[in-house]
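Attaching the record inline, Q. Sequence:
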Amino acid sequence: MTTYQTGELAKSCNVSVRTVQYYDKEGLLQSNQQGNDQRRIFDEISKERLEIIIILKSLNFGLKDIKAILNDDNGLKVVRSLVTQQERLLEQKRDEIHETLKQIHKFKHYVGEDVEAPLPKIIETHQLMNDSATETRLLKCIGKRFIPLVLLQYSSLLVSILKQTWKPILYTFPLLFGGATYLANIIYKDLKYLCPHCQQIFKPSFTQWASAKHTPRTRQLTCTHCHTQSHCIPVVEGTH
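Structure, as predicted:
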């Protein structure tokens, strides 16, 4: 039967000598002492057990579970059962990590890199960013008024195509322009903005608001409190 010294076994399984020594000390491997220098000698069974340990460690099993598996006659069946448990735990952790990352990304969105607000402001900001009704109300605020304009626009376009004339579009243009202006005023009146720099909520002027660069979730405005220009977050009236 082939035998291995500690270093040879470690090299054959691509692990460190210290790893072999540790598992031997924990009783997971079978070894004998030989020679005057009391060298540890391992057999093929130890090599096989070490390879199994490496596989189980890669599946994130702890030492206690590994010992139980190695000492169980139905070891592979035990591995299958524990792997299923491990899968559930990892999936739960994955969901928790995903949710935490969402919160982190959202926090960075609400709090600017150069924020100068005092620490207690985090309480208000956290309440605001976790108010599930805020984004819903914002979408409803815009959507319920925007949909009729979209329907009117596409209806006039469809009629124009069917009748092969631009008249329906020309006739509805004043309505679309007036509706868009009305919608802009309504939305402006319903919204305030959170400054990510000073964490204050403010109301910009209509001119500044209408001409500001914006994304679906922010608008580049100058805060009326700290006078810093940044991408500010919309807040629906009544949610703060």
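Residues 75-110 form the longest helix (36 residues). Residues 121-236 form one domain.

More tomorrow.
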